[in-house]
Amino acid sequence: MSFTPVLIFFLGGVGMVFAALVVSRLLAPHRPNPLKNTTYECGEEPVGSPWLRFNTRFYVIVLIFLIFDVEVLFLFPWAVNLRELGLFAWVDMAIFIAILMVGLAYVWGKGDLEWIRPRGSSAGSAKGR
Amino acid sequence: MSNHLYLIPLLPLAGFLINGLLGRKLGDKAVGFIGSAVIGIAFVLSVAAFVELLGLPVHERHIDRTFFTWLAAGSLEVPFGLLLDPLSALMILVVSGVSFIIHIYSIGYMHGDPGYPRYFSFLNLFVFFMLLLVLGDNYPIMFIGWEGVGLCSYLLIGFWFTDEARATAGKKAFIVNRVGDFGFLIGLFLIFATFGTLSYAGVSEQARYWVGPGSVIFWITLCMFFGATGKSAQIPLYVWLPDAMAGPTPVSALIHAATMVTAGVYMVARNSFLFALAPATLSIIAWVGVLTAIFAATIALVNNDIKKVLAYSTISQLGYMFVGCGVGAYAAGITHLMTHAFFKALLFLGAGSVIHAIQHAHERAGFVGDPQDIRYMGGLRRKLPTTYWTFAVACVAIAGIPPFSGFFSKDEIIWRSFAGGHPAVGVVAMIAAGLTAFYMFRLLYLTFHGGWRGRRDQADHLHESPPVMTMPLVVLGLLSIVGGWVAIPHVLGGGMRLEHFLAPSFRIAEELSVMHGHHSVSAEYLVMILSVALAVGGILWARAWYIRNPEAPKRALARAKWLYRLLLNKYYVDEIYDYAFVQTTLAFGDGAWRWFDIPIVDGLVNGLAKLVGWMGMVIRRVQTGLVSNYALMMAIGIILVVGYMVWK
Amino acid sequence: MTFNPSDLWAVAPEMVVLAVALAVILIELLATRREGVLQGVAAVGLLAVMAVAVWSLGRPTGAFNGMVARDGLTVFVKLLLAGVALLAVLMSRDYLMGLDKSAPTGVREEVKGNPPLPPPAIAGGEAGVRHGEYYALLLLATCGMMVLASATNLVTLFLGIETMSLALYVLAGIRPERPRSGEAALKYFLLGAFSTGFLLYGMALIYGTTGGQTNLSMISKAVADLGDGAPVMLFAGVGLLMVGLLFKVAAVPFHFWSPDVYQGAPTPVTAFMSVGPKAAALMAFIRLFGWALPDLADVWGPALWMVAAATMTIGNIVAIAQRDIKRMLAYSSIAHAGYLLIGVLAAGSPGVRSAATASMLFYLVAYFLMNIGAFTIAILVSRARPDGDYQIDDYQGLGASHPYLSAAMALFMISLAGIPPTAGFFGKLYLFSAGVNAGLVTLVVIAVLNSVISVYYYLRIVVYMLMRPQPSPVEVRISPAMTAVVLVCVVGVIKFGVLPGSMMDWARSGAENMAQPTPQVVVDVNDPSQIRQSDR
């Protein structure tokens, strides 16, 4: 009984996909060439050795984005309810943000956020050795 | 003090650790000082504990302290608990006191030995185990002490392990003791199976109201007594003690005369509540004791090694102690244990002083020979006066001449055998007492009287030992005189003070005991006079043979040559044991090795080992190093586990 | 939701660990000449954690509405975990300094199954390891383990597992210049993520079938209410949850990661990983299976029985074939996990639960001491070699040149084999007797046979040290910190091997002081915040 809307939703979703494909097929012009037929891979060359190395800097950026994105995810419901939750929740979130800030200060201070960094040398805070 | 009772065994352990780990760095002086000081402090603490116990009313003289749970597995729980009652208080006094004196003596005796730190650390370790043995409030602790003193005895008998014979002697002592320990261990298992507890308090409480079959108790006590015959050198397991004389003489004095060998007597006395329930075992003990006493005494009559004579004498005296326990006179047995500790330690230390002097003379004269053969001694009275006088005191004491200590303890045992309904035991014990007097004075006369029978050039090098060795002799000499005065019987106007002091420890045994002998004052006088007369007779006989008329013994021996040879060869018991047990066992072992071990056991074991190793190699292949394979294996595992749980 | 300030005591040790970790990070950032300072701060901080843990001991109770437990068991385990971390910290500095000096950036290793890679480009661009990061990750992993060990709610359980695991993934790969270290980290991470998926799926199924419960005591109640009508999905959920935890204790067949990871990770981390996560995950096992789900013991029991038997057998048999001491210890740790699972099974029968838990605690303490000791000596011996390898052959003739070190190693091996008078013996004795009391006679027989097999490869090291001639002279240098670690382990192994009573008493009082299942706090109608939440 309670799953009926789910079924309708599911059927609707599948229907929409088919509808889009059919409509596209009917309306779009159809002039293929070899370049058009290759797999799409975010602008990278799709042919070649699979053992190719991605630049690790992308990961750093992604990680930082993820961390602060998730932070905001936590901040939003907290901000909405702050008045009811009171001082305790405020202290709670302050500690949470402080911990994140320590992490940010660390990567910043160590120079791990620098985009261009010559290999083998340490930028930012130099090691004391 | 009773709150810190654990300090008494702990101090010697600390001494062992310090001397054992740092001994070489500390130097001999410091080692000797530390080794003796820890025992000295332990003695002072023992005195404090004793005094504290004396200050309590009689019925409260039972302090049982549990310090921590030592181990617990299932229904078996062994607390580390120490028990201070009159029996253990007396034992710690004797053990720590005599040990202290002997440690002091060792400083001089072992001077210059390359193994000096090792010697003192082992000696400290021994005292630790011995104190643990007598202080423990349950059987496992006693057993640990029991095994520990055996181990130390083995280490110290073979102290000069580079000498093949000495190392073998150590091994013999260890193996023979293991045979006895096996009996003790079976006894402990039987106790646990029967009573479900291993604490003295628990077992004695149940024994008090025991209504079960007597046969169980009979086997328990018999097994335990078998253990005691090993440790305390009784028939049939006495053979190791004479060989144990290979160790340094102070070790013989401490371990093989005063303390360790009496552990069996202590064990029987401590378990008086069990033995009292088994009159049959008690009779066996009394008879084994008295037979050992006379058997060893006869061997001592003819032996020519000063330490071996003392060793057989020790076996014989231990026999008396067991007679005391066997006839229900536990206090008398323990009293004899104490007086014997004094005079036998004194005899050994005196012998050590003699050996020390002769060894020294040998070295000076560039002569290699046995420094322990009394046939080549004589006339040492003038050269070693202190040693002579103290040795003489000990001889009088062991011979049982009043008012020296040996008289009171030995006479009490003999009298209680008559009074307790074992007149035959009493008669044999009396004859053995006469023999004791004879062989001890033979030893005294041959060693100290007459003229020097060794080489002329050695005589000039004979000197009295240094004060650090003679002072202990004097102290023990005094104790040998006065030590028995706490046990003067009522008929001589004494108060039996030691027996009254010990009584609470044997209360349950007294309650359970069925035999209450008749007390006849005139009979007690008669026994006393007879045994003193026998002792005096033995002394006079020795004097007649070895001072007045040295040719007499030779003539006598010529007439009874077979007897002499039988005694000199110790009844051939070693040879019989060797043939009956050792050779048979070796033959059996060889056969088993040849026909069973090699083809079956080895084959099976090696085959199994190979199989396991091969399986290891095969299973290892699964560990490919590739993550995808691992994930696949995990997925299979998950399907198996979850599948089993869902479709079970 | 009400907040009770005294609840903070329940997580006081975790808060202190976290604070120390942050302090370590800031020191790494701000101070110069900081290696010694970092180690000191981490060590002193862990001592403070232990003090706080002891201080936080109180009447057994739940905290934060049943999210975590505050009882003797958690305090005992937190002390153990802090101890593990402390010894790992103490042995780390020498190891890290050794890396800094020899910094084998040019040294290449062949990695099995992969083509050789060019030198990796590292984000930091630095050779060696930043000590601050290292200690901070170690402390954060410890924090996660503490949460895991005290969790009484599926959410906190998951939180603890993930905090612990994420830190450990990074720690395993903290030597970027060493491909084997990176390989270890990647394998650990991939397989760990795989298992976490199953863990979460299991939690979801349990949540669904028990009517939306995540609190363990409520789950227990719901399972009891379901009785025989429990849906199959519940069993599947329990099974998946079990699989997720079994991965963390490296039980067969979820153990494949452990030898590779143990070998590849920095050795102090390996020592840490071989004890800490096991202890924490086994406590979660005890709470989950022994405490919340004993009613389903006939469902999870046989499966766990099979896993335990397979774990100890395969661990021991494969250990025999190893030539690398770290891999050998890895398989040995798999085998020990198998023994410990006997305790979990025994805890499933209610009469034996505290005894079984206590015996597991004792075993963990013994295993901690002997295993950390063995790893420490492995580090020392490996550092004496020019190539820093961990071959068993390196132990030949060590007894003659380094008698004390060899004696200590022999003691640890004898203890691992479970021979008296060592802590390992009493650990096995208590554990196996708990197993027998719970009626697991067959499993205990298998375990005893396995102990016999294990004697072979443990004593092989002893034989090598004492009876083989030394191929080439080695000089093992021992710093004070390393000496301290070895001494602590030696003294502990002997102490608990001769006098196990005191530790067993603590373990028993810890196990008996466990917070019992209590009904959850009823929603308070007078509390406006709760009404608002239920309205929304």
Please explain how this structure is put together.
The complex is a heterotrimer of chains A (129), B (648) and C (536). Chain A has 129 residues and is mainly α. Chain A contains four helices and no strands. Among the domains of chain A are: 27 residues; 53 residues. The radius of gyration of chain A is 25 Å and the shape is flat. The relative contact order of chain A is 0.05. Chain B is mainly alpha-helical and 648 residues long. Chain B has 28 helices and two strands. In chain B, strands 1-2 form a two-stranded antiparallel sheet. The longest helix of chain B has 48 residues. The mean pLDDT of chain B is 85. Chain C is globular and about 70 Å long. In chain C, helix 1 runs antiparallel to helix 2, helix 6 runs antiparallel to helix 8 and helix 13 runs antiparallel to helix 16. Chain C has one domain. In chain C, a hairpin with a 4-residue loop joins strand 1 and strand 2. Chain C is mainly alpha-helical and 536 residues long. At the B-C interface, strand 1, helix 27 and helix 28 of B face helix 6, helix 8, helix 9, helix 11 and helix 16 of C.
Give the mean pLDDT of chain C: 85
As a percent range, the share of strand residues of chain B is under 5%
Number of helices of chain B: 28
Assign an overall shape of chain B.
globular
Lateral strand order in the biggest sheet of chain B: 1-2
Largest sheet of chain C: 2 strands, antiparallel
Task: Give structural attributes.
heterotrimer, B: 648 residues, mainly alpha, two-stranded antiparallel ribbon, 28 helices, 2 strands, globular, C: 536 residues, 71% helix
Please write out the topology:
The complex is a heterotrimer of chains A (129), B (648) and C (536).
Chain A: H1 4-27, H2 34-37, H3 57-85, H4 87-109
Helix pairs in contact in A: 3-4
Chain B: H1 7-26, H2 28-54, E1 63-73, E2 76-84, H3 86-109, H4 116-135, H5 139-157, H6 164-195, H7 200-208, H8 214-231, H9 240-243, H10 249-258, H11 263-270, H12 272-275, H13 279-302, H14 306-326, H15 330-365, H16 380-383, H17 385-399, H18 405-419, H19 423-448, H20 456-459, H21 467-482, H22 497-502, H23 507-512, H24 521-548, H25 551-559, H26 561-568, H27 573-620, H28 627-646
Antiparallel strand pairs in B: 1-2
Chain C: H1 12-30, H2 35-55, E1 61-63, E2 68-70, H3 72-102, H4 131-150, H5 154-172, H6 179-209, H7 216-226, H8 232-249, H9 257-264, H10 267-292, H11 297-320, H12 325-347, H13 353-383, H14 398-401, H15 403-417, H16 423-437, H17 441-467, H18 480-498, H19 501-512, H20 528-535
Antiparallel strand pairs in C: 1-2
Helix pairs in contact in C: 1-2, 1-4, 2-3, 2-4, 3-4, 3-10, 3-13, 3-18, 3-19, 4-5, 4-10, 5-6, 5-10, 6-8, 6-9, 7-10, 8-10, 9-10, 9-12, 10-12, 10-13, 11-12, 11-17, 12-13, 12-16, 12-17, 13-15, 13-16, 13-18, 13-19, 15-17, 15-18, 16-17, 16-18
